[in-house]
Amino acid sequence: MSAFSTRTGPINRLIAVLVVVVIVDAAAVTYAFAMHRNDPPPVPAFTSVPSQSPLRDGVDAYGSRPQAFGFTTTPGRPQVPNEGRVRVIVDGRERFDPGSSLRYALAAMAEYATGRDGQWLDRAQTAVSEVLARRRDGLAEHEIPQDDWYGKPLPRRWASAQTQGLLLSALSRLYSATGASPWRSSADEVFDSLLRVSGATDSDGHEYNPWLSFVDDAGFLWFEQFPQGQTPSRSMTGHLFAVIGIYDYAAISDGVRRATAQKVAGAGAATGLHHVPLLRYENGAAWTSDAKLVRSWDLHQVLVAQLGTLADITGDPAYRSYTGAFRKDTAILGFVATGLVPQGDVDAYSGRWAGDVLPPTAISSTPDQAGGERNYPSAPMKPDVVAASALSALRQYSRVKDRRSLDRAIDMVDRLMDSTQDGLVPHDFIVRNPFGQVMARPWYSAQTQGLLLSALVRLHAATGQQRWADDAGAVFDTLRRLRVYREYSSAEPRDVAMGYIGDDTSPSNLWFEKYWRQSGPISYDYPTMVVDAHIAALIGLYDYWAMTKDPDAARLFDGGASTLLARLPDIRRSGSVSETVLRFQVYQLDHHRVVTQQLAVLAEMTGRKAFTTYSRLFAQDAS
Q1: Kind and range of the H or E element at 222?
Q2: What is the dihedral of CA 117, 122, 124, 126, to 10 degrees?
Q3: E strand or H helix at 214
Q4: In the sheet that 482-484 helps form, which strands lie side by side, from edge to edge?
Q5: What are 90's strand-pairing partners?
Q6: What is the pLDDT of residues 123-157, one digit of tens each?
Q7: Which segments of 49-134 are extended strands (E)?
Q8: What pLDDT does residue 45 have?
Q9: Averaged over 600-607, what is the pLDDT?
Q10: Distance between CA 8 and CA 184 in Å, rounded?
Q11: 214 bridge partner residues
């Protein structure tokens, strides 16, 4: 019995007849089957695992934790949901994307299953109906341009087994919830589309174009995310979304169709079980496919959720083991903690401290200067300046409730968020780091992430709009990306991380990095320890903790604050300007002044008097 209740009725159409051919050889046991419709297309043999147990019934992958799979009813930018009609903003225009609509629909169905609120069912039906209405030849088509994992552009109106799998999961849930036969009929068609195997032919004898699945040289059955690419990507998350969709379809089917769906889902699960170990990157985000072209933090989290689901569906302990290992690879690593937990309700950017806590690059929030559209109109956007300026505008708004200041802040933060990828703000302008090295573009900065996080928290407080909280969550996740300080090997791919664990005095110190790059000589990869940038990230973490009480935010704050407190004797230069960059001899008075005020802020955020003492000493040393 399925975890989502099923209402089955008579099937008034000719369904598939399963023909199982057991092929025994030295390599594996293979199953060959043909789907007999009007003119049955032959489906090539694929490998199955002889010892594999039948799939378990009753697993609802998306019912209790849709967010783990990237599904949400409040997707925020660049997606705009409107009562089930979801649009993606591309180049300032609203565009339809079937994948975004289906993620929304599955999240809406989870909401409906939890509270039985009919509006969520209505919204899910609207989103799915729009996908169905825009299909061509039974396939949900993507109109927004995209490259495959090889960096090659996909053709216009490209199709995807991942999207068909999501659609199949959504249709299965809608049929279970309503008993309406059109949902079941559509689900039958979508399931059939996933059996468009590369090299096979349709009822007219024409090869499928596009195909959605293929059997590799070892006999494993794959569902391809980018079938119209020049080379199969073997995307594991795309493959497993299709497998879960087929499993969901089996729950609403009966007879030969159910048996066929279970066989196909089992074959797809066997493919995952064999290939998932090849994707693992220890202590980092996994490869998206065994082609080892792309690694993604966000897709890694989705993969972990999928592996847990496959462990439940198959009952295979290997899937359970992989789930734990992959989860551990991106867990927050160990670092120093001395109990400097955040406390109180401190607004670092309220302006009540003697000097400004914002970086020296901030511009004023007067109407003729701070409008987001007027920052660097003829040059690449400087995200740290824009984020600091947004905070300055929000400070003005908090004082006098000036709507123009709030609108300016919204405009600036919108610009930053529209540029993000996986929550990271790219810096696409030339700059030299403190060692005089030109940063390859794009580069990334924990300072910008911290400033943006603080701005998002304040926008949520000012407007009450959930989208700002959702954006804040995405930006916070980037500050969880840490790397143990060690030299990269020449062949080692480089994740974008926002912090280092370990410095020249302790292997457990935690530093948030202002200058992070993915390319260039290996010697460039070490913490610069820019003091005010590190503290800006800490303030962002504090603000996020104040909004959410997230324990990871508190832990990261503790690690960074404890590191700072331990290194303050090295940062201070008695009677002179302090170290701006602890790793290199850089002394800048404007940064010294900001750090002086930041230390006073940290004193209130932690209740630790030592920060107050150092703030006073810094003020005496130079002002």
Answers
A1: strand 221-223
A2: -170
A3: strand 213-215
A4: 482-484, 499-501, 510-512
A5: 93
A6: 999 999 999 999 998 899 999 988 888 888 999 89
A7: 79-82, 85-90, 93-95
A8: 63
A9: 96
A10: 9
A11: 222
CA 580, CA 431: separation in Å to the nearest integer?
A: 17
Render pLDDT for 559-569 as a digit per residue (tens, 0 to 9).
999 999 999 99
Helix 236-252 × helix 161-178 angle, to 10°: 30
Give the domain ranges of the chain. 21-57+64-329, 367-486+497-560
Q: Spell out the CATH class of 21-57+64-329.
A: mainly alpha
Mean pLDDT, rounded, for 235-252: 97
Quote the pLDDT of residue 361.
60
First to last CA, the chain: 73
DSSP 537-584: HHHHHHHHHHHH--HHHHHHHHHHHHHHHHHHHHH--TTSPPPSBTTT
Backbone Cα Rg of the chain: 27
By three-state DSSP, how is residue 500 classified? Answer: strand
Residue type, 592: H
Would you state the structure tokens that stand for residue 316, as one six-digit string? 């295979």
pLDDT given for residue 522 in this prediction: 39
Structure tokens at 584: 């290199």
- Distance between CA atoms of residues 220 and 203, nearest Å: 24
Distance CA 485, CA 537 (A): 19
Task: Provide the CATH topology of domain 367-486+497-560.
Answer: Glycosyltransferase (1.50.10)
C-alpha distance from residue 20 to each of 15, 43, 121, 156, 268 (Å): 16, 11, 39, 38, 16
Residue 42 to residue 203: CA distance in whole angstroms = 10
Percent of the chain with pLDDT over 70: 83
Flag whether pLDDT at 543 surpasses 80.
yes
Residue corresponding to tokens 């992070």? 516
Instruction: State the pTM of this model.
Output: 0.73
